[in-house]
Amino acid sequence: MLAENKSYQRSVENFRQVFSTEPEIVTFAPGRVNLIGEHTDYNEGFVLPIAVDIFLCVAAKPRNDRIVRVVAADLNDSDEFSLDQILRDEEANWRNYHRGVAWAIQQNGIELKGIDAVVASDIPMGAGLSSSAAIEVGFALTFLHFVNADVPRPTLAQWCQLAEHKFAGVQCGIMDQMIALLGKSNHALLLDCRDLSHQLVPLPKGIAFVVADTGVPRTLAASEYNIRRQQCEEAVQWLSKLLERSIKSLRDVTLEELAQVFNDIPDPIRRRARHVITENNRVWSFQQAMREGALRRAGALLLASHASLRDDYEVSCRELDAMVQALTSVNGVFGARLTGAGFGGACLAMVHEGAIEQVFEEVPRKYKAILGNGSPEPKIFAVHASEGATVQKLID
Ligand code: GLA
After folding, report:
1. Is 112 part of any domain?
2. CATH code of residue 9
3. 192: annotated active-site residue
4. Please, which residues have CB within 8 angstroms of residue 238's CB and are 6 or more apart in sequence?
């Protein structure tokens, strides 16, 4: 079934053309949608993402030397470097993901072999579906396959995160790499980002998840993201001082405690803290609602999450707000919110299965009507909770 995938076909065909031979493996790495728990992962909090059935594929074959050649089928670009000297590339940022991953693995004591590889992706870039974690995870499993190294997936997620910090320059949390490696079909992953313990939450029957891409690229995402991270660290300092105890992260503070000292913390730091603390609570309430099939309650939590991201965390934008408004105006939509880092990208909606067609039909029109002239072109599609990344052997 995976072989019917478009990125699979592009990666394999392109590999044959470029390297005039067959690839030995194709690694599939999924995109992800976070159901709830946004900007909580780097505060050692809770998240509830699903891996989705949209993939990035890496077709690859090992080499007998220490050279890595990577062709990006969709970008018409390529890269070549030696595993003995892995440096950041200042020209084309896409190269920093596989380079960073090779660096991080070797940094942890595993000597890699050179590879020839072609990467092709159906995960839209900049939509907030984490194409970056998919490329990291896709290459990590590819590199490790050819040296027969078996690394526990949570550890590998941390190495991929390190690659993103050091090579791509985004101080991301651990959610995206964990879900890309540990996703399960028909389930969400409830992840504790402090100790990486996790459990699967079965998704109720009769609902569908819809991704509504606003068509606005996440231009400010990297710099604003890093600023939010710093503000959370500042919030921790204020709270430690005012509550007179040592606090490691916002995870350690209750809403009642925040309320006691809220007026003594400067704005916007106190609102950033309020978002993270209330969002952690919403993750727990949401997963409980999903287990009980309480869909209206779950939908209301999605809307509350969006409001908090918009007003307290300030990572929404006009188009994301318009999309949530358009989505929730359709009958059969339980709730919607921005998903991923924000500043553009996509919204997630939880929808009654029978209402999907209506959502596809009505939402683009409503979205454009709210935004008026010059509205960006939205893209709306359904996603299904799917398995985490896998390596498929084509040749034994
Ligand atoms: C990006 C990061 C994640 C997470 C989300 C916001 O996707 O990569 O680690 O912080 O933003 O929830």
Report:
1. yes
2. 3.30.230.10
3. no
4. 261, 264, 265, 266, 269, 270, 273
